[in-house]
Sequence to fold (635 residues):
Amino acid sequence: MPAITTLRAMSSALRNREISSVELTEEHLANIAKDETNSFITVAKERALEQANQAQRRREQGEHHPLLGVPLAHKDIFCTQGLATTCGSRMLANFIAPYDAHVVTRLNQAGMVTIGKTNMDEFAMGSSNESSHFGPVSNPWNTDTVPGGSSGGSAAAVAAGLVTCATGTDTGGSIRQPAALCGITGLKPTYGRISRYGMIAFASSLDQAGTMTCDAEDAALMLSAMAGFDDKDSTSAQRQDAWLADLAEHGIPKLNRSLKIGLPKEYYADLSNGGAIEAVQETLAEQGHKLVDVSLPHTQAAIPAYYVIAGAEASTNLSRYDGVRFGHRCENPQSLNDLYTRSRSEGFGDEVKRRILTGTYTLSVGYFDAYYIKAQQIRRLIADDFSKAFADVDVLLTPTSPTPAFRKGQLSSDPIAMYQQDLYTVPTSLAGLPALSMPCGFVNGLPIGAQLIAPAFREDVLLGLAAAYQQHSDWHLQRPNGVRVSQEWEA
Amino acid sequence: MLITLHFVALMDIRSGNRPTAAILHCNFSILQLHSPLSCLTDPIKITMSETKQSIDLPHLANLARLMFDHDSSESARADLEKIIAMIDAMQTVDTEGVQPLSHPLDGAQRLRQDIISETEQRENFQSAAPATSDGYYLVPRVVE
Fold:
């Protein structure tokens, strides 16, 4: 097993010509060929080597972007022109995207090498990666357990050292929860920070792309390339944040002040993770930050409101899969209705059908006010809870998920139990706020995460606080089987 | 504190009849979450109705253009009933006078100039289609 390094270490090795992008890509491909976690749906061997060659030429011509020539994996929800984009579904098993997602374009421009597409819950609907048409992913810390979801393949691939960085998407926790369960750092930026163009839609008012990396500094490098206004996404945010423009060159801005960190009591009711989270609090207090108790009183209503809104948007978004323009088409359709019904019934898995039915139910005649409008009202109450808290504190600290990784099959027959995995992540999604999960300890040998939540567009606070914490802890450097992430390149 | 119960007549809505002002039978137990949240002190609690509702699955499946065979239909119905019961817990939150929030940051839809910004890519896009002919998508005959 070759040494696992940070993205920055890999980047400086490329800059110092200690390794070429092609050699690095070949190493990655060789490691992925031996992968036992099922993290990848597609490995893009030829394309990756071609991109690595291009990156090498660009470097020879004097370019030196920190991401130039670094291999990465894309969650298989991002459209990649000419490469299979399955979204973890039989519906799109044969879909070759005719264009690139904005995120893919941006990372291609920076010179990153797409090594492959990672496994995920079907259409990003799940918290365990067990709903994938391409089989479950194993958590590298214990292969009997799940990696979390829906970005489970990206999280497992980074944790197993197959890549240093991967893209993910987060609708209700799909970056943060798998990051926590696999012991890596996951950043879900503010809604609108990164374009959704070419990112297969699940719930459009919640979906947000983000990063899965070893630590906060690596996340910042990825964010610097992914973020920015895109006129092809009507909800893309137009922002001029000086710190964001400086990220690639100068790294995360130093937090030259003491922060007031809120501890929402509703997130601390389950104390099975308590010891590790308390240790994070102590470390942050030692760094001069002030910790105070706060309350987000509508937290408990977030899960039902989320499953109404996400279901409603999913049932609408997924109506496009009709067997006509792309995706699975049934054999010998007898009528237009038969074409629609059989193509969809064969193409979608059980969890996707559950969400579509939930959305169809809550949006149907006579139910709309009682469910969809009600859920949107609760959404405002939840957003208001956060606004009130941020009137007094700079950032919130919570556990990322109620439990560490659970066993495969443990929750898959009980959708309600699975939905409760999202307890600490969906309120932030409903409010569109940025949040980051960072490794903070172990329970029974399995990693757990601490979640930081900031006001809208203050990813700089999340990254700054996480980077300061990670300078005084090494949870993020620990990997399965006693392997440690190296922050220096070792030839 | 437990807030005012604010039940809409879900039973009637669900059976497809016009909603009435009936108050449903409900069980005031705290929603059984799989992490023990019952030790919370004064956040807004949500409660879950235990009234079993019968869901018209064939109707919903038809609306969603999905079909289920006998066995999968029973499990789909059972799962959906559980999900709806979980969702119904939010009816206990007082939202009187609260404006619905559709964009998470309360943003408005940006409009673009009405100018052509896309080029014609029929061939490229139809390369992903399962059945086309002469630039058209093929479907079963609709008009005899």
Summary: Chain A has one domain: 4-299+379-486. The radius of gyration of chain A is 21 Å.
